[in-house]
Amino acid sequence: MTRIKDIIIDTILSVKGAQLNPNKRKHCFELFGYDFLIDEDFRVWLIEVNTNPYFGIANDYIADLLPKMIDDMTRLVVDPYYPPKNLEDKSRENLFELLYSELPENACNKRRPFNLDLVYPIPELRQQIGTVKPRNTASNPSISHRVSSYF
Predict the structure, then answer these.
(1) pLDDT (tens digit, 9 = 90+) per residue, 58-91?
(2) Class of domain 2-150
(3) Which of 31, 73, 86, 134 suits 124 as a labelling partner, its CA being 20 to 30 A distant?
(4) Which sequence spans correspond to the domains of the chain?
């Protein structure tokens, strides 16, 4: 889950200057839909980011999740400006997590440092990138020359 959070932060930062709220409107928000793929090595790949996510109900889990997600979102973005007169379930925890903010009152950046360890979550499956075992080239110096010209 932490790699997914890193990718979400990276996508928001990649467009924050020009494409997010280009008209500089106050008190606006947008809900994005992220599609990820997890491969056989448990690496996370971003497929796409949707500005118009699908809200269809595919199964019982989604049927339970969607109303809570919409409720949590409105509690975060609407309720501070238009407080509700009554809340159905005040005790339920908001499931949104703040990953990045530049606002002084809640500055936050949960992006982890960049390195290859983030790409391969399971050490046993991590590929050996940039490490080549030395060969015994003493008997044939031309092999050493050919290998060094490629690296």
Answers:
(1) 899 999 999 999 989 988 889 888 888 887 777 7
(2) alpha beta
(3) 134
(4) 2-150
